[in-house]
């Protein structure tokens, strides 16, 4: 599989997760997962990362959300070349989100 560019936007809740721990640990888990795919990722803005990965969007998405709590946190992932996208977690308006981000589906 060819290397693809991805962007992700996320919100890590300030509440402590009984299963996944405090906010800082959950936030760091995102960066650690992205680092596995691309050690030269771009993260100069808050809660937004650009990176490259050789893997499918669902493989990347599952790796990135592994340390998050779906009842508290949320994430949007976009594979730029194919314009496919995934959302995960506490997204309360998926229909509205789909109006802005074409080809988006829930990450399963």
Give a written overview of the molecule.
- This protein is of the alpha+beta class.
- The chain has one domain (4-106): Alpha-Beta Plaits (2-Layer Sandwich).
- The chain has helices at 23-37, 57-65, 94-100; strands at residues 4-11, 42-45, 48-53, 74-79, 84-89, 104-106.
- A hairpin with a 2-residue loop joins strand 2 and strand 3.
- The longest helix is centred in the first third of the chain and has 15 residues, at 23-37.
- The two termini are 21 Å apart.
- It comes from Brevundimonas mediterranea.
- This is GYD domain-containing protein.
Task: Label this structure with key terms.
GYD domain-containing protein; six-stranded mixed sheet; 3 helices; Alpha-Beta Plaits; single chain; alpha+beta; about 30% strand
Number of helices: 3
Instruction: Provide the helix percentage.
Output: 25-40%
N to C succession of SSEs: EHEEHEEHE
Question: Quick one: overall form?
Answer: globular
**Gap between N and C termini:** 21 Å
The secondary structure category is: alpha+beta
Number of strands: 6
How does CATH name the architecture? 2-Layer Sandwich
The value of Rg in angstroms is: 13 Å
| Strand content bin | 25-35%
What CATH calls the topology is: Alpha-Beta Plaits
- CATH class equals Alpha Beta
Q: Look at the structure and give the mean pLDDT.
A: 96
Strand order of the largest sheet: 2-3-1-4-5-6
Number of domains: 1
Largest sheet: 6 strands, mixed
Low-confidence stretches: none
Protein name: GYD domain-containing protein
Detail the topology: elements first, then pairings:
Layout: E1 4-11, H1 23-37, E2 42-45, E3 48-53, H2 57-65, E4 74-79, E5 84-89, H3 94-100, E6 104-106
Parallel strand pairs: 5-6
Antiparallel strand pairs: 1-3, 1-4, 2-3, 4-5
Helix pairs in contact: 1-2
């Amino acid at each position: 599989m060819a290397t693809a560019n991805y962007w992700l936007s996320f919100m890590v809740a300030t509440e402590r997760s009984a299963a996944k721990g405090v906010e800082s640990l959950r936030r760091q888990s995102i960066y650690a997962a992205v680092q596995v795919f691309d050690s030269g990722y771009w993260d100069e803005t808050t809660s937004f990362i650009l990176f490259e990965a050789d893997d499918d969007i669902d493989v990347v998405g599952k790796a990135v959300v592994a340390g998050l709590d779906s009842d508290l946190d949320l994430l949007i992932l976009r594979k730029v070349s194919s314009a496919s996208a995934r959302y995960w977690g506490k997204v309360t308006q998926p229909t509205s989100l789909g109006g802005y981000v074409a080809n988006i589906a829930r990450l399963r």
